[in-house]
Amino acid sequence: MENRFVAAAQEKPLLLVVDDQASNIQTLYEIFKDDYEVCMATNGADGIAFCQSRKPDLILLDVVMPEMSGYAVCQQLKNDPFTQEIPLIFVTAQHDPEEEARGFDVGAVDFIRKPFHANVVKARVRTHLTLKHQSDFLRSLSLTDGLTGVANRRQFDIAIQAEWQRCLRVERPLALIMIDVDFFKRYNDHYGHQSGDVCLQSVATALKKSCNRTSDLFARYGGEEFACILSGTPLESARQKAQDLEQIVRALRIPHEASDVTDVVTISLGVAVIIPTKEKNVGDLIACADSQLYLAKRAGRGKMHAIQMY
To answer: In angstroms, rounded to a whole number, what is the distance separating the alpha carbons of residues 196 and 224?
Structure first.
């Protein structure tokens, strides 16, 4: 068995088992392999790294491990906005109520005792996955824009903070594209607000399809303004993505007789890319992307401006 990660079939709920004992991992794998995708890590650091890259649906975590205890792993995951919502069940041979209370205090949802009873383990995992899916559904409603169906401003704010922290840890670039539908007030005045809503829906749907990596987030920022977060994306790639998005909207051929750009709906885009540091913050990135959007609009709209921040 590999020391890092072992994955099974796709498109099943994803369980991560973190345990330094191969026999425990093997036992849990046999219990869950038919119904779930089961991944394994043999130490806390590898478990945390896995969660930051793939985000499992549920974690089964050994309490007692060398170098980094299960409690420390749990606390680190719960302190990270990207991983804090993952339900975590401690696996332990201990029967100490104080240790159990400590586990709940750091964020665990349940305890499973060793030796394992397969039916009990399955039932507890199934229960917590059901609760997670219900919670995810309710959360998605609160984080989705009612008109366009894309992420809303609240989800954008949560996501960009999480991606900033992630890119800060691994020293990777973070790109932000701010997008504005050109002369949209004129569009509403000319065609009516119902047509304006349909226009925004069409633009949002087309742009979201192009921001399709699992690490991307496309959101309605407010009014006729949208934003795209591109994690791990350098300047040239972000610039190319922005140019592609501009062409995608033009290709929709949505009539806009009141525009000064052309006779179809267009967008202006501002791009800012930074490798996050402790001296900067998310607000700096947003302000910079917004200033680039202003430059694109000032240059005649239907254009893109981009900058590398330092």
So the answer is: 9
Note whether residue 147 is domain-resident.
Answer: no
Model confidence at 6, in pLDDT bands (50, 70, 90)? very low
**pLDDT of 99:** 83
Is there a single domain that holds both residue 129 and residue 225?
no
Is 3 contained in some domain?
Answer: no
Q: How far apart are CA 122 and CA 145, in angstroms?
A: 36
- The answer to whether the pTM exceeds 0.70 is no
The partner residues of 40 in beta bridges, in order of sequence, read 17
Residue 255 DSSP one-character state: B
For residue 310, give every residue at least 6 positions away whose Cβ sits within 8 Å of its Cβ, in sequence order, or none. 274
User: Quick one: pLDDT band at residue 137, thresholds 50, 70, 90?
Assistant: confident
Q: Within a domain: residue 112?
A: yes
Domain boundary among 88, 114, 141: 141
Q: Taking the chain, what is the end-to-end CA distance rounded to the nearest angstrom?
A: 43
Average pLDDT in the 131-146 region? 87
- Counting Cα atoms < 13 Å in the Cβ hemisphere of 61 gives 33
- Domains in the chain: how many in total? 2
Q: Is the pLDDT of residue 9 over 60?
A: no
Ramachandran region, residue 69 (left: φ > 0; alpha: ψ -120 to 50; beta: rest)? beta
Rg of the chain on CA atoms, in Å: 23
Q: Are 293 and 302 in contact (CB under 8 A)?
A: no
Contacts for 185-189 with beta carbons within 8 Å, 24 or more apart? 186/256, 186/258, 186/259, 187/256, 187/258, 187/259, 187/265, 189/258
Question: Residue 39 is part of which domain span?
Answer: 14-141
**Same domain assignment for residues 172 and 128:** no
